[in-house]
Amino acid sequence: MTKRPMLPEDHPCQTCHVSAEALCCALDADTLSDFRNQGGNVCIAAGEPLFHQGDPADCVFSLTSGVIKLNSILPDGRRQVIAFLFPGDFVGLEAGERRNFSAEAVSEVRLCRFLKGRFEGFVSRYPALADARYRKAAGELALAHQKIVMLGRMTAAERLASFLADVHRRIGRKESNGVKLIPLPMSRGDIADYLGLTKETVSREFTRLRASRVIRPRSLALVEILDPQRMQELAYGIAA
Amino acid sequence: MTKRPMLPEDHPCQTCHVSAEALCCALDADTLSDFRNQGGNVCIAAGEPLFHQGDPADCVFSLTSGVIKLNSILPDGRRQVIAFLFPGDFVGLEAGERRNFSAEAVSEVRLCRFLKGRFEGFVSRYPALADARYRKAAGELALAHQKIVMLGRMTAAERLASFLADVHRRIGRKESNGVKLIPLPMSRGDIADYLGLTKETVSREFTRLRASRVIRPRSLALVEILDPQRMQELAYGIAA
DNA sequence: CGTGCCGTTGATGCCTATCAAGGACCGTGG
DNA sequence: CCACGGTCCTTGATAGGCATCAACGGCACG
Fold it and tell me: What is the pTM of this model?
């Protein structure tokens, strides 16, 4: 993170690690300070909901740490995870009066919260913020299009490979020896609901990727990529 | 359409039937006239491409009549129709340097074309236009989320019902006696690629909807809804 | 050391894809 | 006017991939 010298040393944004990608980076220091005073910090434990389908959408959030999943649930209980959100992502781009999906913390999560009305005021006063918001939405739209292709036309193996490649791109780490690691804070069931599969199928595909030496699980929540090229081929270079 | 008295009688926007939903409606008459001079009209015959995957994205379009499909094609030839676009929809919200998908006319199509650079200039000069663009993108994002649920968790029958309900909402007509009609300018193969199915499955599901008296096809391209309630139930009220 | 949750593995079945053939529609040309 | 070929749609037979049902195993927790 780049320091922002105009801010007081104890300003919460001083310790934020996502200013590079977050919406806030569209604002200069003075404005940012003003902006931050509009909302507050939120911290949510793993498994706890942020909001539910149908709730009034009266605030928006910027995710600073942790992972969130967005769920859509059909009347008969079938569940689809629409997206996993990572630090730097924004919650509330959809602009409806009510939430079309629920949001739940996958791991412990920190967010900056802004009241929607005040946020809108900022957007109209600062064109750079409006532009950043549009570009976030456009980026989300492109991701959604890729996910549509994945769900419509890919096999189970390809879906899992796309997912792993995508998570690696977003929150992957490299060890000092160059080994690529993928943290997987979400459960197998969550992954299944994200990929349009069942947890059993996801489990089987994990086993097959391990058997074919493409990945090596260090634990349930941490996977090492042994063969990045094969992984990219399976995913057709598309990060789901 | 509402007349725009400030425009010259022969101005092309005077005969545009989509000003209510189109992006242009964010502009007043003076600005609109200026705006329209930036681009030009385009007319494309059914089946002809507007652009291809990978092309430089140097212009954006507002669709005024006809239907367009957006295709994404995997290296091995599998095809997914990402969206059908109807009059009032906008092409080029994605904001990338290159096209992530191809666009092809399903029926004869008319569009207003704008050079991207000049369009961006207008967006930065007219906040109302920027806002309208954001709301279009947010709306597309919400639609994409619904489509993700459909592709991830719905059966073939539910997918087709969702599709028919959606097309009806967008371009459906009512006869004087109240009968609801759905025009289907796209082929069965296009519908299949949109729903993540094969044309054979789509055909079979059409037959089953007909057999159970939910719809009555007048021709391949025009379907009458006999039982709107049953249709909505099958689609879970979700327009795909 | 149980208990419970989550993940894995196995057996079976169903939904949709695939392969194949026939039918409807349309434009062209005899 | 009808024969003809082509394209798209429909219908049938079969196969395959993933879901479902069921049992087992690992790990954390009290």
Answer: 0.94
